[in-house]
Amino acid sequence: xxxxxxxxxxxxxxxxxxxxxxxxxxxxxxxxxxxxxxxxxxxxxxxxxxxxxxxxxxxxxxxxxxxxxxxxxxxxxxxxxxxxxxxxxxxxxxxxxxxxxxxxxxxxxxxxxxxxxxxxxxxxxxxxxxxxxxxxxxxxxxxxxxxxxxxxxxxxxxxxxxxxxxxxxxxxxxxxxxxxxxxxxxxxxxxxxxxxxxxxxxxxxxxxxxxxxxxxxxxxxxxxxxxxxxxxxxxxxxxxxxxxxxxxxxxxxxxxxxxxxxxxxxxxxxxxxxxxxxxxxxxxxxxxxxxxxxxxxxxxxxxxxxxxxxxxxxxxxxxxxxxxxxxxxxxxxxxxxxxxxxxxxxxxxxxxxxxxxxxxxxxxxxxxxxxxxxxxxxxxxxxxxxxxxxxxxxxxxxxxxxxxxxxxxxxxxxxxxxxxxxxxxxxxxxxxxxxxxxxxxxxxxxxxxxxxxxxxxxxxxxxxxxxxxxxxxxxxxxxxxxxxxxxxxxxxxxxxxxxxxxxxxxxxxxxxxxxxxxxxxxxxxxxxxxxxxxxxxxxxxxxxxxxxxxxxxxxxxxxxxxxxxxxx
Length: 568
Description:
This protein is of the alpha/beta class. It is 39% helix and 24% strand. It has 21 helices and 18 strands. Strand 5 and strand 6 (221-229) form a beta hairpin.
């Protein structure tokens, strides 16, 4: 096995290859010292390099071959022989026998130079080890697939055995002291870790009549992952209440809390909502990767023409920029990305949020606290006395907040906020409904961004076919021409044919023509018609473009944006 002696260090080599800058390497090394992780893990977590980029440089440098576990058929006998404990402790997975030496096994390792880990495998198997490089993230995902449900079920069974007497009488009061038991701690921890590694945005723990159902929302769609005996519910909910700072004795009222979670070196913010139902308390946990919100604009997935429109809006020195869409459409990510672009040493940025979803260095962030009478409106009035250049409002919810935002923009501030509407044009009529005069909207608002998230087709298994005449009509393309589109299929590497999500955008700068028609009595359809004439892509048009480009399926376009702009 080749080692790194007398060679360029891996970090310096990544700089030489142009994958990272010297500043990024310095940041990663500092983070590595603080978190005590491997440099590769830190670089990937920070988003400086992809897993593939790091693997190519690492394997070239070390002479250790890479392996993609997703394409390997794992040997169950080998897995049993090595055992879960060693695989989790040393972050490795045996995946087959060496073709040239049957007394040698191939092992995927996050750290192939860890001789102690290799000794562990040799000791329990009595075989030689041939090391392959695989990222820690991929290894942990595979381990969760192999053992996650088994671990959780074993913990649930252990809990039920330990409390069999306690639950013999179904009418007996719940014992909240049970939360300290290791099985319940293990169930909740495993659930959170598995959800993160599956890329879930939400966890639903739902009491049914005779069982407890656990579902994860992956790529916007709920899927069941586990079902427990109903007597586990009270201890599970109590454990979640304790770690999220809620009152475990209160079971009749809804409660909201939050906790911070660390998985594979990444920090996640978990918002907890507990709601009493007829069969017990239902828990929903929303997972947000703290560093996932503060990304660069190039990762938003904008088409070049939309990126130009976004730049034209954000370069305004003052005015309101609105980001609209339903819950879970990526509005917060867009707002934080815009904020990140504008975050310079020369400007004073203040935000008022409920809750603060990500910490941004150099930005003054205010958390709404209704009990202390710190609402969006009251916070905004105070913020205006803090000499701000840029203000971000988490959401415009009422006419008071809308009015202050408009006045702030007219007096020379740039205001960024979200609004719950279906389209860019509907946002204008919503502000009018809130009591803002149309002529003030024309002066104050500089641009509106509407967005949705569509599931991205898995590039490995998507299936191509010719679009039907009806589908061509939906896509608004020539019915006489052939058009290749793709459908989901499904493989080991994806979630029922989809892998991840991509945003589609409708970006409307408030031009002089739109501003002039706001002085008349106009509808959302009339505003949209003018915007389209001026070159705006509607959500439906953006969805169709993604279908034609093979990014998503026509079923996703129909689900997200088909009912939009029918008349345009």
